[in-house]
Amino acid sequence: MIVQPDLSNRLDSIISRLLVRQRQGMVRVVITGMDPRVLPETLAALEALSQAGYGLRVTLSHSASLSAVYGAFQCWREGFAPELLYDTRMPQAEEEYSELFLPAISGNSLAKIALCLSDNVASAWAFHALCHGRKIIVTLGDEFTHAALPEAMREQLHRYIATLKSWGIVFPGVTTQSKGKQLISLADIRQQPAGTALRPGRNALITPAAQDEIRRRHIILYKD
What we know:
Blueprint: E1 2-3, H1 11-18, E2 26-31, H2 39-51, E3 55-60, H3 62-65, H4 68-80, E4 85-87, E5 99-105, H5 107-114, H6 121-131, E6 135-140, H7 151-166, E7 175-176, E8 183-184, H8 186-190, E9 197-198, E10 205-206, H9 208-216, E11 220-221
Parallel strand pairs: 2-3, 2-5, 3-4, 5-6, 8-10, 9-11
Antiparallel strand pairs: 1-7
Helix pairs in contact: 1-2, 5-6, 5-7
């Protein structure tokens, strides 16, 4: 099962804290999927980044550009940041950005990245960032926690996320668990912003070093 805390009111501050190491950096944002319901969370994060002094460049996936997401994004842009540049293009060999942000990523794009299929905008930008040593931050959309999701699909999504995390891609506030026991290490905790919440799951095993880091960072643990 994939578990993440309620980030709807705190995603903006979480992303800002994650990126605080590089002030005034350029963040490339790739918006995927066709569901406009997840857009408010994404736009709150973009506003926080903009107000913190980060430059933004937004890329819309093919599906997003042909759906209601495009219209909602345009309305927000006209009201908040009319000067914000956006496009629908694949990355070029040389691109100026310090981090890649994939908010509310679609299941399709997540699978393509994990399977090394660089045939859509999100996966192309992800592989560009990986090849050039850029930090990648990913948050999950509602489809990943849908109650009706078949168990086999949950297991597969768990494997995809685990693959991406093994490449150094950051999923703030997200833990994964399978039918076995989940092991949370010091490296896992170091990816979490200080002062945020973590829901590791009922069967999780937390190493002593990870427990010390949880206390040091004042991370709140919620057990199912």
